[in-house]
Amino acid sequence: MIYSELKKPLTIYLVAGITLSIIIISVILTAKYEKNLLYTMTKFELIRTNSFKMERNIAEMNSLVKEINSLLPSHYYFKDHKEIMLLGFDEIKTTLKDAEITVKNFNSDAHEISLPVTISIPVNSYVQMVNNIGYLQTLNFPYFAIKSIVIETPAKGPFSGTICKIEGILRMPAEKLTRNKT
Amino acid sequence: MGKVSVVSFEDTTIKVVYATLKKKAVSIDDVLTLKDDQFDDFLLKEKTKEFIVVNSFRDFFQDTILIPPTKKRFIRKLLELEIKKRIPFNDFSFIYSVTGEKIVGNRRMKEVFFFAVNNEELRGIINRFILRGKVVKAIYPDIFSLACQIGSEGKHVICISETELNKNLFLVKNGAVEFIRTAQALEHGMSNLDIQNINMTVNYCRQTLRINPSHVILIGSLCRDYNTTNDTIIPIACLFPMSLVENYSLYLDFISPLSAILIPKDKDINLLPSEYKNFFRIKLFLKCSTAIFLTLSVIGIGYIGYIGKNIIELKNRTDAIRATIPDVDNILITYDIKKTEMSEYMPFVNSLRNAASIPDIQEFLSLFSYSRMDNIKVNSIYIIVADTILNIDIKGSVKAEGYANIQRYYQKFIDSLTNIKSVIIKDYTIGLENKDFSIKITWGSQ
Fold it and tell me: Residue B352, Cα to own-chain centre: how many angstroms?
């Protein structure tokens, strides 16, 4: 019948339809692939940036650890915390020979051990006094946290009668470092 | 525009016209006149696939009926039911034209002229083509295709055409047929008998149909073969379409097939049975859909190409980035180890930070020693360490005579303190009686 004439256009129609379907699916898949590839690239860039950041952080941590280790006294790993504190105190006493040094009891909590110290130094020379204060400020493990300084000269007396009274706390972290760190 | 092949069945003669449509004009490429028994052989040999057919139907049914006012899309259905009641066959195709309106019993009715043909006859024609692998695009009754060429400007005209010895008389208004009459003649061309028939038809129109035709139009070869001594009772003229002027003689002989080429698109005079119309609808749908599919496919391929280019670029960039990524696993392990180690060191780091955050008292005292202390005796310096600054209280006295001198040296001392970097004077007082002063300052990073 006449409908047999539709065989050719119908075949072309079906082929075109199937082709279009394949192309639509391909478009969807390639678009998705492109999107995922873009996502992957972004992630790779992030990984690279983070890797470099982590490498930099590792280097920083290494140098920090080295720096801290260099600041630790040589006897740090062999002695008890309180002993180290008192060794530091003894060192102050030895360095500031003319000073009158009084000390209170240890205070300690989970993070820190502290020892309140009061130092009275007769001031013979302003420069020496400044150097002594500088010395106290450079102490590490234990470090000396100055709370107040009073420099007083008697109203009618000579400068040699000047007294420098320093109140501070010797402080150290309560945790003990384990040895053989990088 | 396009090639068109038209076959016109005119009794025992079959006329074939090959033409090319050029905008609104028609260029005739070739014409053939065949006898009926030659036609099947012609179809077998002919390469053209699709044909428009014009047929001079002998057995048809025509009438004018009244239908109630209804929407245009329901008219065909309504008419089909009406026609079924009036004609002796059930399977038929028909064309119609709304010719006017009438008031019947206070109701406005539509006057519709219809022309129906038995589908058996139509299939007989179509099958001749199908059996020889050809397709019939449309079948037009010759009278209707000719009527489409009549521009009567709102007036009724009587047209007369010739098929072999038969004369077709039909009443036309604005290209729509309203009445058909077929008359037997004794000879070709116009004769006195035909004039008599025309006059009778005019009278019939006037008396029965109450229509007054304005003139008579002769169609085709009748314009050439006019051998009559009598006159018509209304004026007479010849049909001569302006779009076909190539060959007047050819035009007169082949007017039926040529008129089929020029049928306006809005004229629905195709008698092709519904199954064949459906066939062409499906074919058109398939053609259009295929064209759309192919267009979309081309766009899709282009888009895939575009994405593909992007993908290649992205892949290259990704590979380049991947190549520069260091050994992540190793870094992660090292980082984790270092982080754990650092957590152990953190109290020490914080301790160092705390120590570093205290302002440098040694530095302040050094800077203070450079301040101008002419005639100034500092009795005491109180330094209290706050978070990041030093709160300093300086007490002393001015060793000078006269209030002006006292003020001068005191001011010089204050100015020199002000000049020390990061010093802010908070308060300063001096007792002029006892010459003692007190200055409150802060120092440190603000």
Answer: 75
Per the listing, tokens 């007169």 go with: B252
> Residue B352 corresponds to which tokens in the numbers above?
């160092």
**A chain contacts of residue B288, beta-carbon cutoff 8 Å:** none
Distance CA B359, CA B379 (A): 23
**pLDDT value of position B391:** 93
* CB-CB neighbors (< 8 A) of B342 in chain A: 61, 64-65
pLDDT band, residue A35 (cuts 50/70/90): very high
**Cα gap A168→A39, rounded to integer Å:** 58
> Nearest C-alpha of chain A: how many angstroms from B272?
13
- Distance from C-alpha of B142 to C-alpha of B140, rounded to nearest angstrom: 6
pLDDT of B233-251, one tens digit each? 889 888 876 555 566 777 7
pLDDT at A181: 47
Phi, psi of B157 (to 5 degrees): -130, 150
d(CA A130, CA A172): 24
Mean pLDDT of B250-279: 85
Per the CB < 8 A criterion, the answer to whether A168 and A119 are in contact is yes
* B294 contacts in chain A (CB < 8 Å): 16, 19-20
For B288, other C-beta atoms within 10 Å of its C-beta total 11
d(CA B290, CA A70): 83
**What are the residues facing B390 on neighbouring strands?**
B385, B443
pTM to 2 decimal places: 0.57
Q: Are A58 and B334 a contacting pair at CB < 8 A?
A: yes
* Mean pLDDT (whole number) for A159-171: 85
Residue written as tokens 């766009």?
B299
Residue A32 has pLDDT above 60, yes or no: yes
Q: What is the DSSP letter of A72?
A: S
Whether B345 sits inside 8 A of A177 (CB atoms) is: yes
Q: How confident is the model at residue A180 (pLDDT cuts 50, 70, 90)?
A: low
Q: How far apart are CA B283 and CA B223, in angstroms?
A: 41
